[in-house]
Inverse folding.
């Protein structure tokens, strides 16, 4: 793990790092020492580890809860090179949708493929970040919607260090089987008028989670129109389960 | 409006009253003076104005938000006499369910009938309570699930003083038309394994609300198994919209 840059503002320290080929970023309270809960944020499709929405959420988790937060670029995103195989599939999928195919099953299959790479990558990032003195081996949470849900569900299912997850804007096609293996508390965000994920698919994914405590938060609006108060709710959810 | 008893404990004053034939209870912060938000709580079927769940919620709204809270007995409940017509319908419905009829449409029709009486009753209670110096004409919220939802939806639709409502454990059969006339923020509670309200009916009621801001909170469990953290959420919801 190699740190390449560090800045601090408003009480939050941001450290850019690489772990092998994976570019990442770690946010911690300025001057932090000792173990603390860690949230891994999975970014959305076409976004990256320091997209505005990722940074905004990360800074709130750090400033308001004292947590550490990490995010990494998904293959083919941010500072990572184009992956020829993934790029070809995205292009083919777009052509199929233009020809009238349904988007949801194509997206689901694509995300399941990428997850085979990202699950071990994110586990390696957890291993490395939790060795740092100012992060340590505290409880881990996961926050990810859309692509971050499609990749997050198999990750949370595979990773026992994750104790609570906020997921959403995803459907059952990709990940119902992995969702059934998740038993930690889940807060699941569904946009009632989501133009990319059919409502029934989102409800079916919520239904599939094996968790005894799972809560569905559905709000009107399209895929990218999550209301701001859901971040307040996510903060309290993680504080309750990791704090 | 006639007050019949008053007690205070833990900073909350509880006043029993009657308004005509309606027995009610008002909770306010001890020593309260001046206007404040008011929450009307509608109790569930077979319950009454001082059922433990009503009192528990009321005291938290008062103690943590400084609100006033009122609750009244629904006809045929608590300190009110049996209503022969309602009693007969309940008995007939039970016989029909025993004979294999579906409960939800019978409940829906019954609640719609009772609402024709309770909507004007509750409006009269608002009129009277808001004349009190320690309540005043502040913004009003409504909290009610199950019967409190079946009666609450037509009440909230009819009453412009209500600025925000927590509703739930109800279905679209009774009240989709009234729900469509509601435009204030709604937090809607749905139990994913509700044995009395079919899931599709609950989702359809959420869908029917005309509100630009409405949020569905669905949790695993049966009709009466609302998780405790939803009361925390209701407190914040009312604080945000009435505070």
């Amino acid at each position: 793990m190699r740190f390449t840059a560090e800045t601090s503002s408003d009480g939050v320290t941001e450290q850019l790092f690489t772990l092998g080929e994976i570019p990442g970023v770690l946010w911690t309270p300025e001057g932090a020492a000792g173990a603390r809960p860690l949230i891994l944020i999975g970014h959305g499709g076409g976004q990256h580890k320091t997209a505005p929405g990722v940074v905004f959420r990360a800074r709130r988790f750090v400033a308001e809860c004292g947590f550490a937060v990490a995010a990494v670029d998904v293959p083919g995103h941010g500072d990572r090179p184009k992956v020829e195989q993934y790029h070809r599939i995205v292009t083919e999928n777009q052509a199929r949708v233009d020809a009238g195919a349904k988007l949801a099953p194509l997206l689901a299959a694509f995300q399941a493929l990428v997850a085979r790479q990202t699950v071990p990558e994110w586990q390696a990032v957890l291993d490395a970040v939790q060795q740092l003195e100012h992060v340590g081996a505290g409880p881990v949470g996961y926050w990810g919607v859309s692509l971050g849900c499609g990749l997050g569900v198999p990750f949370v299912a595979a990773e026992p260090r994750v104790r609570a997850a906020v997921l959403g804007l995803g459907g059952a096609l990709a990940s119902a089987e992995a969702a059934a293996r998740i038993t930690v508390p889940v807060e699941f965000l569904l946009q009632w008028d989501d133009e990319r994920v059919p409502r029934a698919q989102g409800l079916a994914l919520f239904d599939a989670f094996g968790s005894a405590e799972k809560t569905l938060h559905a709000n009107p609006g399209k895929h990218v129109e999550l209301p701001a108060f859901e971040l307040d709710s996510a903060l309290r959810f993680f504080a309750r389960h990791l704090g």
Summary: Residues 103-129 of chain A form the longest helix (27 residues). Strands of chain A lie at 2-9, 12-19, 22-29, 38-42, 68-72, 140-145, 162-168, 186-191, 214-219.
